[in-house]
Amino acid sequence: MNYFKTDLASLHADLVAKKISSKELTQATLDNIKATDPKVDAFLNLNEEAALKQAAEIDAQGISADQPLAGIPVALKDNIVTKGMKTTAASKMLENFTPVYDATVTEKLAQAQMITVGKTNMDEFAMGGSTENSAFKTTKNAWDQTKVPGGSSGGSATAVASGQVPAALGSDTGGSIRQPASFNGIVGIKPTYGRVSRWGLIAFGSSLDQIGPLTHGVKDNASVLSAISGHDDHDLTSSTQAVPDFAAELNEATSVKGMRIGLPKEFLAEGVSDDVKAAILAAADTYRKLGATVDEVSLPHNKYGVAAYYIIASSEASSNLQRFDGIRYGYRAQDVQNLEDVYVKSRSEGFGDEVKRRIMLGTFSLSAGFYDAYFLKAAKVRTVIMNDFKAVLKDHDFIMGPVAPTPAFGIGAEIKDPLTMYMNDVLTIPVNLAGLPGLSLPAGFSNNLPVGMQLIGRPFDESTLYKAGYAFEQNTDFHLQVPTLGGQN
Amino acid sequence: MANRINREQVQHVAGLAKLEFTDAQLDAFTPQLDDIIGLFETLSEVDTEGVEATSSVSDQLNVMREDVADNWGQSQALLKNAPDAARGFIKVPAIIDESEDN
């Protein structure tokens, strides 16, 4: 199956017209994953038997025109729980964990009759920006297998970018969908906080986490986001806002004419590579040619985002990860003499280094004598950062800038230096702190590696981001370039 | 290097987090954590006088629901995930230290 030369709408048309059956499509997808995955290591587990059975059932029922995603394969990041299907969060802690329920997004994809073909690799508990923190394997960039795929949703990004699946879900706490999408030359969205239910997403930073789709194109992304969005009684932070049919709003007439776009000067500052800067300035020119106004604006506190985030996210993580205690599920250390040892040894043996670092940072920030200076201060700086965005978005339709300061870096290049790794998230983190939607899409190349552009919008205004992304896609060809992997393109 | 956090403090925090580190791990972690806490301290440059803390960005406030028990009927499936189980219960080591004679 060649997912580079098609999109979800064409796949749907072929399925409805019975040019291909869902079972054939699913089988071809699984065969291709098996052939290509030894090169890129995107998947942790395949769901072969159940996927083929579900596809056959869908074929037997027939696919109607009003089921636009029915019978089409999808992959899920392995921190999204799937009933009866192993879910590990790429941690030794959950190596043998089989959930007894489905995440709300898993259920919604099943209602849309998408076929979950497997679970993708990630940084352990979604902590990291390179997928090198997986307890099981290191995923490779689809464009260059000596480079990282980004992270933490690196498996989902590489699976889409290498043509294994037409769509995948990831999760984004500080850039974990947008940055791997950027590094792999595909489209990824971090929806507005509350747009998508977090029920069944293994919690990392609960006030920051959102699930979102990764796809080849903007319209495909919009289709999947509509399918997974909406209020959920199981997640009381999920919003009751109506969910638009985002993809239906995208057509030949989609335009940015008359829109006002803010380009923050801080987004092109020190640390952002020349090629990335050039790609974003060229994109700004494209938008001007399409009739939009691009103003230089300022997000003066952007640079404090990383510090505030690593306090807040780590504090929330240290609390969320208390549940992994070796008692009810997950890894339990052997040869322990008492209950305290069960806790300490199970956690010390079950968690990897990056997870331990985050738990330590969070526990420190929340501990007696440090709470006011660290956690409370970070929560106030969060308000200041939100106010910066509010001020710019008051009179701009959206903000544009890079996703990451550089293209994909080498495997092994930064893993020993946590602080350098953390600084890669300087342009994505503030968006999570403010709870805003952020769309990542292809906008150029640097030494044959993709460069991504980020569009940031008002709360619950994913529509504008998709329209602006679609208009850009219609007028550029970056998204049409695909990696050469195993000669299938 | 500024000493924002030392080995003893790292060990204290590890105790709070129910983690333990070898000497070699402490040697590696302490300067890393010290660097990151150095980054945290840059927040003192931001004037937050009179600024409210943000703990949630959800647009849903004070959502109430009935407290209704829901029987999943899946205790056997749940127990399969337990590291050790017997007769419908999760097994854990004795709470009293068996290595000591007291």
Number of strands of chain A: 11
Number of helices of chain A: 15
Briefly note the structural class of the backbone of chain A: alpha/beta
The neighbouring-strand order within the major sheet of chain A is 1-3-2-4-6-5-10-11-9-7-8
- CATH class division of the domain at 3-259 and 437-480 in chain A: Alpha Beta
Architecture (CATH level 2) name of the domain at 3-259 and 437-480 in chain A = Alpha-Beta Complex
Mean pLDDT of chain B: 89
Shape of chain B: flat
Q: If you average the pLDDT of chain A, what whole number results?
A: 96
Portion of residues in beta strands of chain B equals under 5%
- Give me the number of helical elements of chain B: 3
Radius of gyration based on Cα positions of chain B? 23 Å
Query: How helix-rich are the residues of chain B, as a percent range?
Result: 25-40%
Structural overview:
Chain B: It is an enzyme of class 6 (ligase). Chain B: This is Aspartyl/glutamyl-tRNA(Asn/Gln) amidotransferase subunit C. The complex is a heterodimer of chains A (489) and B (102). By secondary structure, chain A is of the alpha/beta class. Chain A has helices at 8-16, 22-40, 48-61, 104-111, 154-161, 178-183, 218-228, 274-289, 305-320, 339-350, 353-366, 372-394, 418-423, 429-434, 462-474, and strands at residues 43-46, 73-77, 115-120, 167-172, 187-190, 210-215, 260-264, 293-297, 398-402, 438-446, 449-456. The relative contact order of chain A is 0.14. The model of chain A has no long low-confidence stretch (mean pLDDT 96). Chain B has a domain at 7-44. Chain B has helices at 7-16, 23-40, 75-80; strands at residues 85-86, 89-90. In chain B, a hairpin with a 2-residue loop joins β1 (85-86) and β2 (89-90). The termini of chain B are far apart. The interface between A and B is large, with 72 and 55 residues.
